[in-house]
Design brief:
The chain has one domain. The chain is 21% helix and 41% strand. It contains 5 helices and 10 strands, in the order H-E-E-H-E-E-E-E-E-H-E-E-E-H-H. A 10-stranded antiparallel sheet has the order 4-3-2-1-5-9-8-7-6-10. The chain is flat and about 55 Å long. The N and C termini lie far apart (103 Å).
Amino acid sequence: MFDLLGAEATLVPLTLYTDSFVIKGNIRSRQSRLSDILNHADEDFLVLSDALVDEYGSRSVATRSEFAQVNLAAVLFAVADSEVETRPDLRTPKVSEQAMISIPPFRVIGRVHVLPERGLGEALGELTGRFIPVTDATFWSDSIGEARQSAPMVAINHHRAQILAPHREVDPWAGIDRSGGAGAAGAAGAAGAVGAAGTSVGDPSGGAIRPEDGASG
């Protein structure tokens, strides 16, 4: 950290995803890694320059602004436009684990980096920080129609996320016959309806009104 005191601030391009907007812009920082920029912010907001703001699902034209202030609490995750290597002398030895992060309305799949020589449950318990870096990431949202995108690194808002590691996708309907049972039930219902109709119309003893009954009345 002391080395950063003399470092010159540079413009870092990034993209922020909030509940409603995608915001692209640049931030001036002495930090180079995206997660460090977010975690070491002096305020609870970022000020981006040359900002482009686009609303999910909107048919209107995106808004461009010279500056935009974005509340960090509203940021679901941020995406780095380029990969930045950590200096070896500042790097803490860690191991990476494949994980899926649910951060509604998005899902992120990538690798989280945890301390070694621990059980995965214990390691996740020690995963701290306001924004957690996820490398080799893919993110998307089916509910708002955001297609899959890949990035060398995203930083997720720890307070808004659920981290599942390791993970595997499963079919919630596995083992349940959704075709045979429904078809049999439907056939039985249809047969019952036909039988009831046949009794009412074709069988005089079944309570149907006969022409002579109507005439005598």
